[in-house]
Amino acid sequence: MNPGRPGDEARPTAEEEAAFRSASLECITSALSRLLGPSGAEALLAHVEKDYGIRRDEIPVRPSEFADGIRSIFGSGAKLVLSSVSDSLKRSMPQSGFLTEFIGALGQPPASNANNHSRAFRTER
C-alpha cells in the first residue's frame, strides 16, 4: 500500500488491486464449485452475467450487485452461498481493507474467526 500523507488512509497500488481482484475471483469460483459442483458454478456465473449484467471479471469490483443477484436467484438459500464465498475468502486471502470491504459488500460479517462455519448451517427461528 502507498503510505500517503500522515493522516491519509493508505491507498492500494494498481498492482495490489489487480492481485486482489484475481485472487478473490479464484476464491469465489472455487467456493461456488465446491458448493454447486463445477457445472453448477459455471451455470450460476453465466446466469448472473446474462440476467444481472455482471461479468465474472467484474465480481470483485461489484460485490454488492453480485450478492444482490445471488439473493434474487437463491432467495433464503443465498445465505449459504454467500457464507461459503465469504468463508473461502477469509481462509484464502490475507486480511486487508480490500477483504473487509468486499466481505461487507456481500452482506457477511468480516468475522475475525474464519474457522466458525456453523453460521452457514444455522436455521433462523
Structural description of this entry:
The protein has a single domain (14-103), classed as Non-ribosomal Peptide Synthetase Peptidyl Carrier Protein, Chain A (Orthogonal Bundle). Helix content is 59%, strand content 0%. It is built from five helices and no strands. It has helices at residues 14-36, 38-52, 63-74, 78-92, 97-105. The termini are far apart.
Detail the poorly predicted runs.
Answer: 109-125
The number of helices is 5
Mean pLDDT: 79
Outline type: globular
The count of domains is: 1
Approximate strand percentage: under 5%
Number of strands: 0
Q: What is the multimeric organization of the chains shown?
A: single chain
- Roughly how many Å apart are the termini? 44 Å
CATH fold category name: Non-ribosomal Peptide Synthetase Peptidyl Carrier Protein, Chain A
Radius of gyration: 15 Å
Largest sheet: none
Helicity, as a percent range: 55-70%
CATH top level is Mainly Alpha
Attribute tags:
single chain, 125 residues, mainly alpha, Non-ribosomal Peptide Synthetase Peptidyl Carrier Protein, Chain A, 5 helices, 59% helix, 0% strand, disordered C terminus
List the topology elements:
Elements: H1 14-36, H2 38-52, H3 63-74, H4 78-92, H5 97-105
Helix pairs in contact: 1-2, 1-4, 3-4
Nutshell version of this structure?
With 125 residues, the chain is mainly alpha-helical. The chain contains 5 helices and no strands.
